[in-house]
Amino acid sequence: MMKLKFKNIALTLLFCGISISAMAQNSITISGTKVVSGGEVFKIPAGSTLVFEPGAILSVEGGLEIQGSEESPVVIVSKDPQNPGRGIQINGWDQKGQIIINHVKFDGLIQPLRFDPFWYRKTVQLKKVTIKNSVSGEPVLYVGNPTIDLSKEENRTFFSIDGLNVVNNTSGVLLESFNSEGLIYNLDQLRFADNYIAGSDESFGILTINFENGYGSSVSSSRIGSVLLQRNFAGNTLLGIAVSGNSKQSTSIEKLYVNDGTRLIYDQLKDPRIPLVRAEIVTDFNLFGVSNYLTNVGHQFGTVKAVPMGASQLVELRDSQDRLVEFNLVKIGDTQMYHYIQGLPQWGLTNDGTKVRIPSVLASEVSNIYVTKIDTGEYYDYLRKKNDEEKFYATHLVLDKYLTLPVIKKKGEILVPQKTWEVGLWGGGSIYGGGDIKHKTTKDFKSAPDALKKMFLVKDIPVFSTVEYSRGLYAQYNVNQRFSAKVNGYYSSISVHNLYAPGLFAGGMIPNSIDKNYNDIRVAPWTWPVNFYTRMFILEGEGMWHLVKNEIKPGKKGVWVPSLGLSAGLMYFTPYRVTYTERGADESFMAYRWRAISENKYNLRKVGSEGQYFLPGGKMYSPLALNLGTSFTLAYKMKKWSFKGEIKGVYTSTDYLDDFGPGLWYGGDINKLRANVKIEEWDRPSDLYQITQNNPNIAPNAPRSTNGLNDWYYQAHLGVSYDITGFSFKKKKENKGTITPEF
Fold first, then answer.
1. Are 139 and 131 in contact (CB under 8 A)?
2. Pick the CATH number of 420-723 from 3.40.190.170, 2.40.160.20, 3.30.1240.10, 3.40.50.740
3. pLDDT digits (tens, 9 = 90+) for 333-357
4. What is the reported pLDDT for 730?
5. Is the Cβ–Cβ distance between 291 and 311 less than 8 Å?
6. Partners of 379 in the beta sheet?
């Protein structure tokens, strides 16, 4: 840990070779962990900006004096709001040191100010301090219990806060050792406005006061003057002040300002085991010194309402994805009416920069609305009139107009357009569905235990013959939180009894046919003579219905999204039969597989297994087929990346994925079939007989396919996608900026 030495403190205070007085008009950068040693004082003059690198900490073991002014406050910020700095930590004992923080604005730090346990200073003074935009969930101001004998008068700490403004954070203030003999708090002019905490527990307030253990005095040694509470929430629960301790303890708040007069205190009146807080409730914020603010913020579908005090008003409305929601402002008496015609606002920004939560729309208010207003033609007419957005929305117009489909959603749920694109890739396996050549089941294996062969359901579990490789690319357009449209491109293979498949588990069930006397016979002793390996190039469109909202909740890194899909498309397929070849002594399986398939596979369409090339009117069956599919997808969606898995079943318009159709075995004449094969080159002369092995007992009029169904297949993939919304190939201009001094 780096120790910094501060010299000539009263005058200039050199700072890594740079004078603080020289930096007054510039920013000071904090990176890593910087330490102010015991016995030293770190002074920051008015007008300075303290910039924290990601994760940076200013650890103060000595004194700290940040002396801003009303005209020139000191600003303390994170360099990167997405990767904020930690903040200032007060550590260790310093009998002579003091902490003075006057007219300071903290913005976007993890924990702006922390008095760590084991700290001690004689005097702490915070005056006119603002803390905003801290979203880590850590208390924005935490005061731990000093580990010193505070019962001695000479060790007492006086902790003063006069003017604290806590706005737009995801946590509040936590004060320990309240009402103790040695840590004397003097709190006044504390304002908490528009802070939003995860959960719904009101026992942890926006201001939480923990009384010192063992002190049962009914008279507090500390003072709480004026406190203002304005729209602080945990979920949908209004938050206020909460205390912990024992039932013999108590304190008083001189004036508690709450706009509607509600007693927002979690104390002995709600839990008889904890301290009592007495307070005078005041509803007039002007008496606190706040004159510009919004009250009675309400929301009905299509309209946000608010009653302004002073000149306050909303200048922006935004949805859960931080997208702008357009509105028209109409004033009726004292009420401001913000009418919107698209989206669903969840946040508003006032003209003083405060982020205000917009209440949720009640289900009863939208009971007759099936789809959101974003899907109306009037909205697109409105958008076309906006010159700066005309080109963007024109690219989405056709999709949005015709993709207003029924969706899976909760009663009263309002859908908000997303209009985002993501591209991704798949990798996995594909399996033949078991049409004309059936897969074996447990009861078909001679080696299976008799108990399994007879067990209900278990005996009928299919064991797929092979699993072949499947991969693909896709583009997905997210229409709203409940529906997405996809275009998929796959290169997949299926097979039965392919000895060179990446996953070979069993042969198939031997097909049956009839002899000349119409008796059932087996075509072959096993399925190797009718093995096939079919390659498929597939292009399809797919609709995805999301079972939960396809959006990330505020404060969360990601969300699991299960989805159901329906697809339709076109495929180009070619069935092959692979003949047997010996594996080389030093040949790896992958090399053996590659050689066997590349050198010993033959296009069955050119064989004409049903006499297509010698029977009158016969012709090659089409390489094209339509397909219809259903799918289940589970995705973990993050801000830009998504990780997915899918399983899919696809039914096709062809009966020839396995080269089995409704025609006759070998067209009724094996010799004519072999004489008319359209394959020009053979690896070995015997290969013709390998791929056309014949059972002479099969009747000349015996059909090959007997189930009357077309073929189908299954796919299973894992994949990843990236959100490309707003991506541009244009080179960004370099922002040279300014160089900030090192701390």
1. no
2. 2.40.160.20
3. 889 999 998 788 999 999 988 999 9
4. 52
5. no
6. none
